[in-house]
């Protein structure tokens, strides 16, 4: 065990529930989700949410799109993806099973974590689609889980997502308007 592991506290979901503000918890290490995202980040998140909501409408009765909510991987890892699509009923105050799709919108403070740590967590958890939205480059990288590994499928084009109960086409280029 390294020195850091001996002296740094290890937090769990019970600790997380008592914190003020927005946080994520990765392997017991807290990560502040502040400051709030800039207006362009929020606009892109809203546009992506609406695109998925319209794509799901009347096609996938059990699938719903969500803005950030707690995705509890285990007792010491809780993430808050920017956008999620879930095709089953959430029975707890948090999501405790892998969503069908997760989208993370990059910012300077989150890009490294989104491209590495979260990428690996979502891949290990079996999240079928992982979208990395690069606002500066106006690119959406669509990764699909194939044989347990993410494979890059598209960059910002229209894309057909084969969810557990249906298929939807999302016009991803529309989010930049």
What does this protein structure show overall?
The protein has 177 residues and is α+β, with helices and mostly antiparallel strands. The chain has a single domain (36-176), classed as tt1808, chain A (Alpha-Beta Complex), CATH 3.90.1570.10. The chain contains five helices and twelve strands. It has helices spanning 3-7, 13-16, 39-56, 111-115, 117-125, and strands at residues 23-26, 29-32, 64-66, 71-74, 77-79, 83-86, 101-105, 129-134, 139-146, 149-155, 158-162, 167-171. The strands form four sheets. Strands 3-6-7-8-9-10 form a six-stranded mixed beta sheet. The protein has a two-stranded antiparallel ribbon with strand order 1-2.
Q: What attributes characterize this protein structure?
A:
177 residues, tt1808, chain A, 5 helices, 12 strands, two-stranded antiparallel sheet, single chain, six-stranded mixed β-sheet, globular, alpha+beta
User: Average pLDDT value?
Assistant: 92
Order of helices and strands: HHEEHEEEEEHHEEEEE
Tell me about the biggest sheet? Answer: 6 strands, mixed
Structural class: alpha+beta
CATH level 4 superfamily = tt1808, chain A
The DSSP helix count reads 5
What coarse outline follows from CA principal-axis ratios? globular
**Strand residue content:** 25-35%
What is the strand arrangement across the widest sheet?
Answer: 3-6-7-8-9-10
CATH architecture: Alpha-Beta Complex
Helical residue percent band: 10-25%
Low-confidence stretches: none
What is the strand tally?
Answer: 12
> What's the end-to-end separation, in Å?
50 Å
What is the CA-atom radius of gyration, in angstroms?
A: 16 Å
Stated plainly, the CATH topology is called: tt1808, chain A
What CATH first level would be assigned?
Answer: Alpha Beta
The count of domains is: 1
């Amino acid at each position: 065990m390294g020195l850091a592991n001996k002296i740094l506290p290890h937090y769990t979901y019970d600790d997380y529930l008592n914190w003020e503000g927005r946080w994520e918890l990765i392997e017991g290490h807290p990560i502040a989700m502040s400051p709030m995202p800039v207006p362009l980040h929020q606009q892109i998140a809203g546009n992506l949410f609406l695109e998925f909501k319209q794509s799901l409408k009347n096609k996938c009765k059990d699938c719903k799109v969500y803005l950030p909510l707690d995705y509890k991987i285990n007792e010491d890892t809780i993430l808050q993806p920017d956008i999620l699509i879930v095709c089953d009923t959430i029975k707890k105050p948090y999501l405790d099973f892998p969503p069908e799709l997760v989208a993370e919108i990059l910012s300077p403070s989150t890009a490294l974590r989104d491209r590495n740590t979260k990428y690996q967590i979502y891949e290990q958890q079996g999240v079928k689609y992982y979208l990395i939205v690069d606002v500066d480059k106006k690119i959406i990288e669509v990764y699909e889980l194939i044989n347990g590994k993410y494979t890059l499928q598209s960059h910002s084009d229209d894309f057909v997502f084969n969810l557990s109960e249906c298929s939807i086409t999302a016009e991803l280029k529309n989010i930049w308007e």
